[in-house]
Amino acid sequence: MKRLNDVIEQFLKTDDSLRLGPRLGGEAQPVTKQQRLFLIDQLKAGSAINNKIVAVLVGLYVLMMIVGFVIVIALFKQPQAMKAALGGSFLSLLAILKGLYSVWREQTKINFVSSLLPSLSPEAAATLIKTYYYATKTQTAKART
Fold first, then answer.
1. Is residue 51 part of a domain?
2. Domain tally for the chain?
3. 82 located within any domain
């Protein structure tokens, strides 16, 4: 799964002027339109990967639902066996649903940022990206402590 922070981190590593912190020497180079377009292309590539993962997870979810119906029909006269089989099937559905939810959440973030970036100037886009990236890094670090 492609995460928004991973895509942004790759983008920020492409140019030292995009990093936060003290700068030695002259002014930082402004962000170019090509850099912004590169980031948009990277976000679209990440979105395509996530779309494929979503399709696979939805397929698995539907397959597990069909297996559950087949189990109910096949084991209709054996309630103990049906209970055991459906319990495992239900737990599998929950695991697939949790994975689908996390991919969907990342996909929504990527789609939001990739739809917002074309309407911004390159400087505003860089500010947005850096602010989001370092804010989420800070939240993650605080959550771990």
1. yes
2. 1
3. yes
User: 10 and 99 in contact (C-beta within 8 Å)?
Assistant: no
In angstroms, the Cα distances linking 113 to 45, 63, 97, 117, 145 are 13, 33, 24, 6, 28
Sequence-distant (6+) residues with CB within 8 A of 53 are: 1, 103
Integer Cα distance of 32 and 128 in angstroms:
15
Residue 65 pLDDT > 70, yes or no?
yes
Distance of CA 60 to the CA centre of its chain: 19
Tokens of 7: 């895509």
* CA–CA separation, 116 and 113 (whole Å): 5
120 three-state secondary structure: coil
What is the per-residue pLDDT across 82-115, written as a single tens digit (0 to 9) for each? 888 788 778 888 888 898 899 999 999 999 998 8
Single pTM value for the model: 0.74
Q: Is residue 26 part of a domain?
A: no
- Give the number of other Cβ atoms within 10 Å of residue 129's Cβ: 22
- Domain span holding position 70: 33-144
Residue type, 77: K
Q: How far apart are CA 109 and CA 53, in angstroms?
A: 16
Answer yes or no: is 60 within a domain.
yes
Question: Rounded to whole angstroms, how far apart are CA atoms 124 and 66?
Answer: 49
